[in-house]
Amino acid sequence: MHSTNVAPLHVRSNVDPMMYSLQPVPLRRAFAPAAFAEAHAMPGGRVIDLHPDDAFRVAKYLERNRAVALTSDGATLFALQDGVLVECAPSAHALARHTIDAQFIPMDWVGGQAVPSGAPERVDITHAVMQMPLATLHQLTDGSPEANALVDPEDRAHYGPHQVVCVAAITHYFGCDLVSITSEMQACATPRRPASLVLDDTDQEPLWMLNIASRPARSFSCRAGDIIEAIRKAGEMFPGLPVSGAFSIA
Q1: Which residues does 156 contact at the CB level (< 8 Å), separation at least 6?
Q2: How confident is the prediction along the chain (250 residues), in pLDDT tens digits per residue?
Q3: Is residue 113 part of a domain?
Q4: What is the tally of helices (H) and strands (E) in the chain?
């Protein structure tokens, strides 16, 4: 099970001091949001209480991406019901499409070295893996140039170095080690949407670039409705460090 390759939506629990990075989950068939939540909400499951503003943003995010299910960790499904996120039962998990989920790790240059600068994100690389030359796939290693090329960082609103961790996800998908994957196995896999495609991007929130007042200097990018939200997200990523500049580029 996996989320689609779109910019995540960040929401905060209205009860606990928790921030969730949500992405839509593609399902095998279409559902009406209310019907899906009613049919698949897990009795006694987790509930994420949302501020009304965040509940509205979640509803618009689902509508924009033509989705009814969300995940924050690639394993647990949530649906929006009466302004809160409710955990879905295993019956909903069976409806999710199976994909190869890589870990995309954004990085920045610090002292001439690339160091992680943000939380890892899950990215669907299934299509890219199916198109990869077999000899390259057999020798693939996490963080190698070939692995890193599986994800376009600009699709993740990142404009610095990055690393892609994917080998474990690929071997899990095929059920064997890399050198045992055959061209027939690649060809027989269900075609997937290209990893560079973003669903219905016309209403996506603006992209903000922010400079963090630190030594060495750092930068941060995110999608946010306005500069106040962008600065708030930067503060959550870099606690205690002020923002020295911010501008919208998309």
Answers
A1: 7, 104, 106, 121, 123, 162
A2: 554 556 788 888 888 778 888 888 877 667 888 888 999 999 999 999 998 889 999 999 988 888 888 888 777 899 999 999 999 998 887 777 667 889 999 999 988 888 888 888 888 898 899 889 999 999 999 999 999 999 999 888 888 899 999 998 898 778 788 999 888 777 755 443 333 333 333 345 676 777 778 776 666 667 777 888 888 887 877 788 888 877 765 4
A3: yes
A4: 9, 13
Same-domain status, 57 and 80: yes
Residue 176 belongs to domain spanning: 101-188
Residues 110 and 157 both lie in one domain: yes
The number of residues making up the chain comes to: 250
| Residue 4 forms part of a structural domain | no
Q: Let me know if residue 221 belongs to a domain.
A: yes
Whether 18 and 71 share a structural domain: yes
Q: Which two tokens stand for residue 117?
A: 């600068």
Which residues lie below 8 Å from residue 236, measured CB to CB, with a gap of 6+?
10, 19
The SS3 assignment for 156 reads: helix
* Any domain includes 218: yes
Number of domains comprising the chain: 3
3-class secondary-structure state, position 210:
strand
